[in-house]
Specification:
The protein contains 22 helices and no strands. It is mainly α. The chain has a single domain, classed as Orthogonal Bundle (Hydantoin permease), CATH 1.10.4160. It starts with 6 loop residues before the first helix and ends with a helix.
């Protein structure tokens, strides 16, 4: 992918568009220094702990290759259309979610942008707790090794002061990187982290292929159970995964797109990001399941996703001696890298909103918002039940509701979304279909998913607070 226009050229373009379009443009706004930098950061946002394990887990449990086929269909009809909508709004307004919605829809639409920011804030507050676990396990694999009694070890470090300490440490790392800005902070890390993640996942997948009994993992992962895949539960899961895996509904892609110049080809970027996201997620399954089956841990797969990642696999790595310690180090480093790239995008949503809407400097926004996120995550760090509840609220309510509203806004409210999407180096090919999907396909599908996920979430909320 070629280089983007120089920062000077991009700033001049922003100034001209601000004057001619009557909008507010910030000539000093940071820009990605290359298209690969934006690509790496955007894919890094999409590829996180959910892709490294959740996609593999759902694929194995809900139809194998049949689930993958469903996921790809929903990615085409939901994921890519909403992704392109976020990129279009962010690049067009050169603002984060709140400013972008106000720019194209007026002040009354600021509330939707605020929902995106709140969602990113909430997700990061508990996501960094889980990321802190991966950071601890990576450091332990490098230094002292993981104890053989992995279950007791996880029980002692997953809640309480230890969990909060590593949550705070992970947030501090995130704050330092985002504090460096878009091109000097997020981009510099992403262009190294994403290739590193790809190499680690490929290396572990190749290692898993050499293990005895790994074939059972491939069969479990890629079984083609079409009868199971067509059930209501699996349809909802596939639609939800297609939406969640691309970091949609939380303003991350909109915020990253706000640092793009006018010349960016948004249609191409949408397809490339979605393809890379799926590729890494699929490779992660080829990494995890052969190792799980070769080590005889298949019983842990259906019990708990956290149990497999932080109890069963670490325990098996500990039993393998020196080889297991090295493989475990690579495995948890890959998880840390995936977690970090996603955390950077979530935190940038919050920081960008503070800079754009409150007029704060980046250092001030990073410090204040970072401390607030860390404090909100304290509840999740001290109690896994709180973490699980926060995850349900964010994923089953906020993300889906935000994505639904975004599709309605772009499809029905925004003036000339096709003209905005094809601006610069874009083209109009397929954009009529894009708007049709946003109007007539995405809303019904997301309403369908909400209809089946909201009751259970509200019930869990009631039980948590009542019990």
């Amino acid at each position: 992918m070629g280089r983007l226009p120089s920062r000077r050229y991009a700033s001049e373009d922003l100034h001209i568009r601000g004057v001619l379009g009557g909008g507010v443009a910030q000539a000093s706004r940071d820009q990605w220094s290359s298209s690969f930098g934006f690509f790496a950061a955007a894919v890094g946002s999409a590829v996180g702990l959910g892709n490294m394990w959740r996609f593999s887990y759902l694929t194995a449990e809900k139809g194998g290759a049949a689930f993958v086929a469903l996921y790809l269909v929903f990615t085409l009809v939901i994921g890519i259309p909403v992704l392109l909508a976020e990129l279009t709004l962010g690049r067009g307004a050169q603002k984060g979610p709140i400013g972008a919605l106000a720019h194209f829809g007026g002040e009354r639409w600021k509330a939707l942008g605020a929902l995106f920011v709140v969602t990113g804030f909430l997700i990061l507050s508990y996501y960094s707790v889980i990321a802190g676990w991966t950071l601890r396990y990576a450091l332990e694999s490098l230094t002292v090794g993981i104890p053989r009694d992995a279950a007791a070890h996880f029980g002692s470090v997953s809640e309480g002061a230890d969990a909060f300490l590593f949550h705070a440490l992970f947030m501090a790392i995130t704050m330092v990187i985002v504090g460096g800005g878009v091109s000097r902070g997020i981009e510099r890390v992403s262009v190294v982290a994403m290739p590193l993640l790809f190499v680690l996942v490929c290396a572990l997948a190749l290692y898993g292929a050499t293990l005895e009994n790994s074939a059972g993992g491939y069969r479990y992962y890629l079984n083609a159970d079409f009868a199971n895949a067509l059930s209501l539960d699996v349809l909802v899961a596939a639609a939800g995964q297609a939406f969640f895996s691309l970091s949609l509904g939380m303003g991350a892609m909109m915020t990253f797109a706000s640092y793009l110049p006018r010349e960016a080809h948004l249609t191409r970027e949408s397809w490339v990001i979605a393809s890379a996201d799926f590729g890494v997620a699929f490779l992660a399954g080829l990494m995890v399941f052969p190792i799980i089956f070769a080590l005889g841990l298949q019983g842990a797969v259906g019990e708990s996703t956290l149990g497999a990642l932080f109890v069963a696999l670490p325990g098996a790595f500990a039993e393998m001696g020196g080889t297991g310690r090295f493989v475990g180090l690579l495995f948890f480093v890959a998880l840390v890298v995936g977690a970090l790239t996603s955390a950077l995008s979530l935190f940038e949503v919050v920081v960008s909103a503070a800079i754009d809407e409150l007029g704060w400097s980046r250092p001030k926004a990073v410090l204040i918002m970072g401390v607030l996120v860390t404090l909100l995550g304290a509840g999740a760090a001290w109690n896994i039940a709180v973490l699980d509840l926060m995850d349900q609220v964010a994923n089953n309510l906020f993300l889906l509701a935000g994505g639904l509203a975004l599709a309605v806004f772009t499809g029905w409210v925004m003036d000339e979304p096709i003209a905005e999407a094809r601006a610069g180096l874009g083209s109009s090919r397929g954009l009529g279909i894009w708007r049709f999907l946003l109007r007539w396909v995405v809303p019904p599908v997301l309403i369908f998913v909400l209809w089946h996920s909201v009751p259970a979430t509200l019930e869990n909320l009631w039980m948590f607070f009542a019990g």
